[in-house]
Amino acid sequence: EVQLVESGGGLVQPGGSLRLSCAASGFTFDDYAMHWVRQTPGRGLEWVSGISWKSGSIAYADSVKGRFTISRDNVKNSFYLQMNSLSPEDTALYYCAKDAGGGWSRFDYWGLGTLVTVSS
Amino acid sequence: DIQMTQSPSSLSAFVGDRVTITCRASQDISNYLAWYQQKPGKVPRLLIYAASTLQSGVPSRFSGSGSGTDFTLTISSLQPEDVATYYCQRYNIAPLTFGGGTKVQIK
User: Fold this and answer.
1) How sure is the predictor about B62, in pLDDT bands with cuts at 50, 70 and 90?
2) DSSP for chain B, written as a single string
3) Is A111 an 8 Å CB contact of chain B?
4) How large is the average pLDDT for residues A43-54?
């Protein structure tokens, strides 16, 4: 059974940093691209970043480019989102999602999400 | 970047009604389109990919069509358990943009 478990969310002040983690199990992790997607009540779903199966391709939404960094550890079956220079607009529920292929495809499994709140 | 526009943003229909949701891409995306269902308080679920291919386990009352810039998601006979927000998403090339969502409710 595929499982994706996010961690690392919390309350952080504007300008601060957080590192999100997603632990994966139930599939051959290094065969698949992985993604971060965030959701706020007023803005629906927003794709944040993706990393291909061997980290050869990485992409970011314009809204986070230069502030967020995605990475993966295929030995630990985990991937990460380092978030710097956080602003209140980054407040959201952050989901990790499994790509159906090695690169940019549909998302066939999702974690339950980890909540990030940016506030003073 | 390609924009994805869904309409309507919300709709209300009777149980048994045929429901259609539209998604329009600002540029040609071929058939690289997925539809997701998100029930209240739940995680998004993949319904359809490649514009018209039903994901395993999804009821056959759901169907998708379209290519290029115009796509539709159809629920042939709306059921109470279909109350949810539906999102389209383009993929294949980043950014993997979602539409704004369509909230479906029962009258």
Assistant:
1) very high
2) ---EEEE-SEEEE-TT--EEEEEEESS--TT-EEEEEE-TTS--EEEEETTTEEPTT--TTEEEEEETTEEEEEESS--GGG-EEEEEEE-SSSS-PBP--EEEEE-
3) yes
4) 92
